[in-house]
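Handout for the seminar on molecular recognition.
Each group receives one record of this type.
Step one: identify the two inputs.
Step two: read the structure output and locate the region that could contact NAX.
Step three: write two sentences on what you found, then compare them with the reference statements printed after the record.
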Amino acid sequence: TRTPVTVTVTGAAGQIGYALLFRIASGHLLGADVPVRLRLLEIPQAVKAAEGTAMELDDCAFPLLSGTDIFDDAAKAFEGTNVALLVGARPRTKGMERGDLLEANGGIFKPQGEAINAGAADDIKVLVVGNPANTNALIAKSHAPDVPSDRFTAMTRLDHNRALAQLSKKTGVSVDDIKKLTIWGNHSATQYPDVFHAEIAGKNAAETVNDQNWLENDFIPTVAKRGAAIIEARGASSAASAASAAIDHVHTWVNGTADGDWTSMAVVSDGSYGVPEGLISSFPVTTKGGKWEIVQGLDVNDFSRTRIDATVNELSEERAAVQKLGLI
Ligand code: NAX
């Protein structure tokens, strides 16, 4: 039998954690033949709740789950970790300024970056889900100087999946038949879901839809504001869909994108498409053998250029703010 892969999940007692852990343990993260060992990180007040979830994991008798350990100390939680899902974060509360939010999250992602640097396995892959995800990933990365920077990623797969669902609804074509969609930039309201290179049943998506008004005034805002719409409807933020996207992100990273398709991942920029080097920004990405590559050579039209610049500027501002706070 194979050696179990060690997966660390932070914020394990939260609502995304609850939706995520059972899918990891049942083989959806890495594959139906890959045993996993879970390490859960929580704050001390939430350890008891995490223990409850671990009891339920036991009670599922998942053949692939070789054990669950719970920690309130980052240094221990990332020992030997192969895959880290950084879900726990400090949410924005009433009256909190952006600087306060970034600082509070710096207090979480700096020590976690250091712990990953010190103790994680050589093949460590990190996905940051906790918001502001791109900038939290940047903070963690900058405190893990010995880990190659391509191992730090942030999640825009939920935005990608939301865009697939909206396009499928509009055109009546199954999500399976929609390829090469891209989310650019920040996981925030400025993100840019781009259909100009996408294909629907083999034909260009923008031409198939042929409705610029719908793209600008319906599709883009619906995708970008979907999180708020879920809160409005459900009375709580997206959890199962976020967990599902986290599963998709890591599964695709490890197992590869299909020929003739790509995905969206926030990864460290090498300057492609005018995105300043070092920012963690969402790009069209292919994956193979556990490595990602930014899709090169796409034409960016004027409409897309303006949208990409706006979301990337926001990321530059966030980076400047955390630099000023001494967090990176
Ligand atoms: P919850 O508030 O339900 O859970 C968060 C958990 O994190 C809590 O149990 C808390 O105790 C724990 N936590 C806080 N600080 C911690 C630390 N230092 N170490 C370990 N655990 C810690 O939030 P949930 O709904 O699960 O969402 C988690 C994060 O995902 C939030 O930041 C949220 O904004 C973000 N999201 C990101 C998405 C994305 O697409 N990138 C979409 C969904 C979601 O909104």
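Reference statements: Residues 10-11, 13-17, 41-43, 46, 87-89, 91, 108, 129-131, 133, 155, 158, 187, 227, 237-239, 242 surround NAX (CB under 6 Å). The mean pLDDT is 97.
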